[in-house]
Design brief:
The complex is a heterodimer of chains A (638) and B (478). In chain A, β1 and β2 form a beta hairpin. The longest helix of chain A is centred in the C-terminal third of the chain and has 50 residues. A two-stranded antiparallel ribbon of chain A has the order 1-2. Chain A has 638 residues and is mainly alpha-helical. Chain A is built from 25 helices and two strands. Chain B is mainly alpha-helical and 478 residues long. In chain B, β1 and β2 form a beta hairpin. In chain B, α3 packs antiparallel against α4, α9 crosses α12 and α15 packs parallel to α19. The radius of gyration of chain B is 21 Å and the shape is globular. Classes of the chains: A mainly alpha (638), B mainly alpha (478). The interface between A and B is large, with 47 and 53 residues.
């Protein structure tokens, strides 16, 4: 099969899975439901691999499905587009997606909404594939909102607890704020280029003699970036992501770590040709990303919910990705997206395995000493921790280092800020790891009795992801030790991705080496220090109430939610309530009724003239005649 | 054959009065389906080049002509009417009202009026049918509405009647210079700026009240909440679309000169209405009121889009007219389902039905998503095109109107979650009856089909829209 035939299949398979389970799933056994859902994912992944191979060295492939809208000035098509960037994302989405589906088969086993869960999960993959494989911004927007819906459904999956549904609503609304920005960006692109197709926009932008007003290109790119801040949880729209942890843990792994939240990065890389013309936007992106990275890492320092720590860690890593994009390091960003997908999915699934073992306990203060009890989870979680902290030779080390290296070359200040953020990352990750797996068990007796490793469907994905987290760095090795085989990913993208075709720059080997040593040494030292604090001294995080100073600020999430509540939520509610009461109810209603009464009164007035007395009428008649005469005189005199 | 469009509703409206009580339900549905068949037949034979297909045109007396016909725009409105009436009757299936002969008869009279409005190409006939629709809808609400309905309905009646008089005055105003009331003759009359503005204002007042455009809306939430379900559905689903249709068919082509003075004020008022209604909807306790304000917010956007006189925006407004008709009917049915089972619409007293009625929860959720115009539903296509037009018209207006995306999600999901999620509040909540399921499912299927393949609508109406806009661009009118 040719690539253009494969593409629709890749996208449609998860939809078919969702449809089968959605209509029949209620009556099927859990094993069959899970197998169908995971099976379509696996097939989709295999087909994606085939398409990936097919398109790798050639030109991008377009598969036209149908035309959605045709008006005089533009037409919008349902089209799929395969180049090395979109196929790379497809591989991540379907690959990691398959593993997480497999994990969910074990994790959700006892849930009443088992089939529904898989329907949503499959639907999510469908939407995500539309997002990455669409050939134009319109399709991207379809997927963009589609993943938002699925995210909403999955965050609020356990809807009996109203708190979860509130978290879901918050996520949806915050995403919609970003979506509006993106939508307006789309209109601007459509206005300027008359098309939303990536290939055509890219061609127009990269043509010789391309001109665009500074204002317009800033408008377009900033709108796209606003969309990205919503989906990829950047300041100011990041507070939904930690709340989104209300969903089942596989969802957090798939949607809120590995795939959906990287959509903003994908969008920016996809539109890199536009961003290259907008220095101001890149600058804004750089500093927003930097601020997000540090703020989120700071908050993660004193969180005690295992998933919350990971959530803030995700926000922080995404911030780092935007720093990379702001510096124009697009491949470095995609490299980190890839390794991050591996180790963050691993960490989330690991935390899921912990929560599963601890009978739904998420507070790390009530865990401890799990090392011996769940060895596979422990070992894989350790690898995830090492990878994200930037311990040398693991994937996260290379991908993070590439971003930091870029910063060192262009922005020294950003370099130190990023190092600070990485240091925080290493601290809270090792804190999380040591407190959870070392020390003594602090849970209830019942929990201790119950602690057990999950079934093979749960451990297998952990092991595979652990392997990927270790070796993922090979994808884009820096050119320090070797001369061949380095920067594979950069070369890969340079083949046929619009905007990324610039030749790969090799940094000065000595500088690179020095930076790597510095970063690696820092991570190792932090690992040792945290080991001393949390294992040797056996200190356990105290209750939030006892914290003071910066620790309290961190535990209280820097009061972002409270500030937003005060600035946006309360005023809207106030407007709604007072508006309904005073403006709608009192003012408008009264003026309408008042108008009616005035008409009634004027009727009264006229009625009073009809007195029925002849002398009155004669008087009026005389007035009338005089009036006519006066009018006549004036009119004819002039 | 087109004459059947008149004959069938009249026939069923009268004949249903003598049908035995137990047959009224089925008879009504059969009748409405018969009308649907005729409409579809008309659509099939329409050649879709944007021209007006006049199936009857002859002079009558005193400048009034018997001119009836349709183009793509009219046909879409006819389709909406013909689809919604059976849906409304089926949604009503479980109510006692469905057995009521008088009620069913009124629905058919309503349909007659609506069809008349959409195919009248003579100004006076348009006015006559416009007024005719007021009678059955008023009687439906007056006879079968909530106990405390009378004040609200009186307000509604006076309000719309005042609007209609303004339109009549404007019609007479232009007829003075035209040989007949035939639309082409009226279009041929050229007015200078000021006169055109005043006359257009007369039309606009009638339309603004019916749509309703802020601040002429105060009749709307009360009337919606006090009417029986079928009445609310007819009002929001089809009747207010008459006004939007009227803007496209009559107001803009008759007074192209007036666009300059009316465009900005109307768009600004409508946009204020979009945001205002959405904000008010956020804290409403009565779920029907939430959707009443939601409806106002959505149609405000359509009105604003139409006034941009932009091709894309008009195309989107046609998609959205169809979409809103379907979704509004669905949402008010969902409200009715809740009220029928619990006896209340107060959101504070509801909750937890998702567990007891999973089917209802699913379809209601799908409707909620359709209502906030997510992609894959026709609402998205409509809003995309309309907002594109508005952004092109004025960036600020576009962004302000665009906040409906955000606020819509706020009030819709608040209403949905408060009623369906959270702790269980009732011992028993029956899942969907088949009649309810059919309506909700058909609506969602239609909305998704048009959301995935909107060309089905836009290809059909675009040629006609083009003709309308050509009329506008030539200053003489014709």
């Amino acid at each position: 099969m040719s690539v253009s035939q494969l593409l629709p299949l890749i996208v449609l398979l998860p939809l078919i899975g969702a449809f089968i389970n959605g209509t029949l799933g209620k009556n099927l056994s859990k094993t069959i439901v899970g197998t169908i859902a995971t099976g379509v994912m696996l097939v989709s992944f295999i087909l994606a691999t085939m398409a990936f191979m097919g398109v790798q060295h050639g030109k991008p492939v377009t598969a036209h499905l149908f035309t959605m809208i045709q008006t005089e000035s533009f037409s919008l098509h349902a089209r799929l587009y395969a180049d090395n960037l979109s196929m790379w994302m497809t591989m991540i989405v379907t690959g990691v997606g398959t593993l997480i589906h497999l994990f969910s088969m074990g994790y959700m086993k006892h849930d009443a909404g088992y089939y529904k869960f898989f329907v949503y999960l499959n639907l999510f993959i469908f939407a995500m594939l539309v997002l990455v494989l669409g050939s134009n911004y319109f399709m991207l927007f379809f997927g963009w909102e589609g993943v938002g819906i699925c995210s909403y459904l999955l965050i609020g999956f356990w809807y009996q607890d109203f708190k979860n549904t509130l978290a879901a609503r918050k996520a949806f609304i915050m995403n919609r704020i970003g979506d509006l920005g993106l939508l307006i960006g789309l209109f601007l692109i459509l206005g300027k280029f008359g098309t939303l197709e990536y290939a055509e926009v890219a061609k127009a932008v990269m043509a010789k003699g391309f001109e665009i007003s500074e204002c317009l290109i800033f408008g377009i790119t900033i709108c796209l970036f606003i969309g990205a801040t919503g989906k990829s949880a950047q300041i100011p729209l990041f507070t939904w992501l930690p709340d989104a942890m209300a969903g089942p843990t596989p969802v957090s792994a798939l949607i809120h770590a590995a795939t959906m939240v990287t959509a903003g990065i994908f969008l920016t890389v996809r539109s890199s040709y536009l961003f290259e013309h907008a220095e101001l936007t890149k600058e804004i992106m750089l500093y927003i990303g930097l601020a997000t990275s540090i703020v989120a890492a700071f908050i993660a320092m004193r969180q005690n919910d295992i998933k919350k720590v990971l959530a803030y860690s995700t926000v922080s890593q995404l911030g780092m990705l935007f720093v990379a994009l702001g510096m124009g390091a697009y491949t470095a960003a995609m490299f980190h997206v890839t390794t991050h997908a591996f180790f963050k999915a691993l960490l989330f699934l690991g935390s899921g395995s912990v929560i599963h073992a601890m009978s739904d306990e998420q507070d790390i203060r009530k865990m401890g000493g799990l090392r011996k009890k769940i060895p596979i989870t422990h070992f894989t979680f350790l690898i995830g921790t090492l990878a994200i902290s930037g311990i040398p030779l693991l994937s996260g080390f290379y991908s993070k280092d590439e971003i930091i290296g870029h910063a060192f070359e262009s922005h020294k200040f950003v370099y130190f800020a990023l190092m600070f953020s990485s240091a925080l990352t290493a601290i809270y990750m090792f804190r999380l790891y040591f407190v959870t797996f070392f020390g003594t068990f602090r849970g209830t007796h019942e929990q201790e009795h119950h602690v057990h490793e999950g079934p093979a469907s749960m451990t297998l994905p952990l092991i595979i992801l652990a392997v990927l987290s270790v070796f993922g760095g090979l994808l884009n090795l820096p050119g320090v030790f070797l001369h061949n085989g380095t920067h594979w990913l950069s070369h890969h993208y340079a083949q046929n991705v619009d905007g990324l075709m610039t030749p790969v720059e090799h940094g000065d080997p000595n500088t690179t080496l020095m930076l790597m040593v510095a970063a690696g040494a820092m991570a190792v030292i932090i690992a040792i220090v945290t080991y001393i604090v949390y294992v040797k001294k056996n200190s356990v995080p105290v209750a939030d109430e006892q914290l003071k100073g910066w620790e309290k600020a961190s535990a209280m999430k820097l009061y972002f939610d409270e500030i937003y509540d005060f600035l946006f939520v309360k005023p809207t509610l106030w407007l709604s309530e007072k508006g309904a009461h005073y403006f709608e109810g009192a003012f408008l209603h009264r003026s309408v009724v008042g108008l009616g009464k005035t008409i009634g009164k004027s009727g009264d007035l006229i009625r009073k003239i009809q007195t029925g007395r002849t002398d009155n009428y004669i008087l009026w008649m005389v007035f009338g005649i005089i009036g006519l005469i006066v009018y006549y005189i004036i009119y004819y005199k002039n | 054959m087109e004459v059947l469009l008149f004959i069938l509703p009249v026939f069923f409206a009268l004949s249903v009065l003598i049908i035995p009580k137990q047959g009224v339900r089925a008879y009504g549905i059969i009748g409405s389906l018969a009308v649907l068949v005729v409409v579809i037949a008309c659509m099939m034979q329409y050649n879709n080049d944007g021209t007006m297909h006049l199936f009857m045109q002859k002079p009558w007396f005193y400048g009034i002509t018997l001119s009836f016909g349709y183009d793509g725009i009219s046909l879409l409105m006819l389709l909406l009417t013909a689809v919604l009436v059976p849906l409304i009757l089926v949604s009503n299936f479980k109510n006692e009202l469905a057995e009521n002969r008088l009620f069913t008869s009124m629905v058919f009279f309503m349909q007659l009026g609506l069809i008349g409005v959409f195919i009248s190409m003579d100004g006076l006939w348009f006015y006559v049918f416009w007024e005719i629709t007021l009678i059955p809808i008023f009687l439906i609400s007056w006879w079968f509405g909530a106990p405390e309905r009378k004040a609200a309905l009186t307000k509604f009646f006076i309000y719309t009647f005042v609007g209609s008089l303004a339109m009549l005055a404007a019609l007479i105003g232009i007829k003075v210079n035209a040989p007949t009331f035939f639309i082409e003759d009226l279009k041929a009359v050229v007015f200078t700026g000021k006169t055109a503005c005043w006359l257009a204002l007369g039309f606009f007042l009638a339309f603004a009240i019916k749509i309703p455009v802020f601040p002429f809306h105060t009749w709307q939430p009360d009337t919606y909440t006090k009417s029986p379900m079928a009445g609310t559905m007819l009002l929001s689903g089809i009747m207010l679309k008459m006004a939007l249709y009227g803007m496209i068919r009559w107001m803009l082509p008759l007074f192209p000169e007036a666009i300059h003075c009316l465009q900005y004020p109307v768009i600004i008022l409508a946009t204020i209405g979009v945001v205002y209604a959405a904000i008010i909807a956020v804290k409403q306790k009565d779920i029907k009121r939430v959707f009443a304000f939601a409806s106002m917010s959505h149609v405000g956007l359509i009105a604003a889009a139409i006034m941009t006189c932009n091709f894309d925006a008009l195309s989107g407004s046609m998609v959205q007219i169809l979409n809103h008709g379907l979704v509004a009917v669905g949402l008010f049915l969902a409200v009715e389902i809740i009220e029928r089972r619990t006896g209340t619409r107060n959101l504070d007293e509801l909750g937890g039905f998702a567990k007891q009625a999973p089917k209802f929860a699913f379809w209601f959720a799908a409707l909620a998503f359709a209502s906030v115009s997510v992609p894959l539903t026709s609402g998205f296509i409509g809003e995309f095109l309309m907002l594109k037009g508005l952004v092109g018209f004025d960036m600020v207006v576009g962004i302000v109107a665009g906040t409906t995306l955000i606020l819509g999600a706020v009030y819709t999901f608040r209403a949905y979650q408060l009623s369906m999620y959270g702790p269980v509040t009732r011992d028993h909540f029956a899942d969907l009856h088949w009649s309810e399921l059919i309506v909700l499912a058909l609506i969602i299927i239609a909305v998704v089909i048009f959301g995935v393949y909107p060309a089905a609508i836009t290809d059909f109406v675009n040629p006609s829209i083009k003709v309308v806009l050509e009329t506008l661009s030539t200053p003489s009118g014709l």
